Amino acid sequence: MIQNCFETHPNRCSLTSNHIRGVLSFYWYTVNTDPQFAYRTTFVPFEQPDDVTLEWLEHAKNSSTNIYKHIWHALARQFLQFFMTQTDINGFLKRGSMFILSEHQFAILLKEGGFDSQRYDMVRFVDIGAGDGEISAVLLKALRLSNPDVIIDAYATEASWTMRERLKKMNFKVLERLDEVSNAQFVSCLNVLDRCIDPIQLLEDIHTILAPNGRCVIALVLPYMHYVESNSSHMPIRPLMNHWPGKAKQYSFESEAAIFFRVLENVGFRIESWTKAPYLCEGDLRQSYYWLIDLVVVVSKIS
């Protein structure tokens, strides 16, 4: 389930600048892949936002100036918070849409990771924690870029009932459990692992449902911090990476990425391609949009 980490962890959010193609573009997309970095050869660089990303940013900027919409959202949230979770509220109000990569960037990352929809007449696609389906729609476009005629059998999981209703309207088959589907050629799990109660179990479940020649794209915000909305402690049964919380924020992006890659390998995945990208969220009256830093990785299943 994609939770709104921009609200559950506001200290992890930063205001962007008007110089989108400048300093922040460098920070959003660039990594230090020196020759000693074991995963250097699978890195896919995106040096700056493409036109689709810039269009999303411009839309978010324009949306942030709608004072009447933001007043309505503020009043509604005050009332709805007594019987709905923050994620359900966002789904009900259709607010807080998110963005990571454009369909063109996702297509490049997938191709570099060995996935080509031209090989298939039909692709079984499972989006785990699909949220409002906005990023799911981008992934569908990415799959169709190289093969416009491919038939996509689209499934999704989502904890929020308001989000599930939106997904059904987008023709996703909403699953109650992951074991309701198998042999999926393409799976996505975007910014879910640090919000679920047992991320290691979720990775093992993904490994089970992934087809032998399939690919899974996973996104994780770094530095890694865990927050579970559904329980009172907001803590997972077991963390994704053992250095959290004791050594949280003590590693560079590259070092923490390598730690996560080893977790994936221990579960039985192979790192095929990866990149660094902004995890963007629509803003409010104070600022146009918020951002975190995502590690986005394409993995295959080790036989």
Rg measurement, Å: 18 Å
> Unreliable stretches, pLDDT < 50, 5 or more residues?
6-17
Tell me the fraction of residues in β-strands, as a range. Answer: 15-25%
What about the largest sheet? 9 strands, mixed
GO molecular function: protein-L-histidine N-pros-methyltransferase activity
Protein name: Methyltransferase-like protein 9
Organism: Stomoxys calcitrans (Stable fly)
InterPro entries: METL9, SAM-dependent_MTases_sf
Account of the 3D structure:
- The protein is α/β, with parallel strands linked by helices and 303 residues long.
- It has one domain: Vaccinia Virus protein VP39 (Rossmann fold), CATH 3.40.50.
- It has helices spanning 5-8, 23-29, 51-63, 67-80, 86-93, 103-112, 134-145, 161-169, 199-209, 253-267; strands spanning 14-15, 98-99, 122-128, 151-157, 173-174, 184-190, 210-221, 269-282, 289-301.
- Strands 1, 2, 3, 4, 5, 6, 7, 8 and 9 form a 9-stranded mixed beta sheet that branches.
- Helix 6 packs across helix 7.
- It is globular.
- The two termini are 28 Å apart.
Provide tags for this entry.
Rossmann fold, alpha/beta, 303 residues, 34% helix, SAM-dependent_MTases_sf, 9-stranded mixed sheet, 10 helices, Methyltransferase-like protein 9
List the helices and strands and how they pair.
Blueprint: H1 5-8, E1 14-15, H2 23-29, H3 51-63, H4 67-80, H5 86-93, E2 98-99, H6 103-112, E3 122-128, H7 134-145, E4 151-157, H8 161-169, E5 173-174, E6 184-190, H9 199-209, E7 210-221, H10 253-267, E8 269-282, E9 289-301
Protein name: Methyltransferase-like protein 9
Organism: Stomoxys calcitrans
InterPro entries: METL9, SAM-dependent_MTases_sf
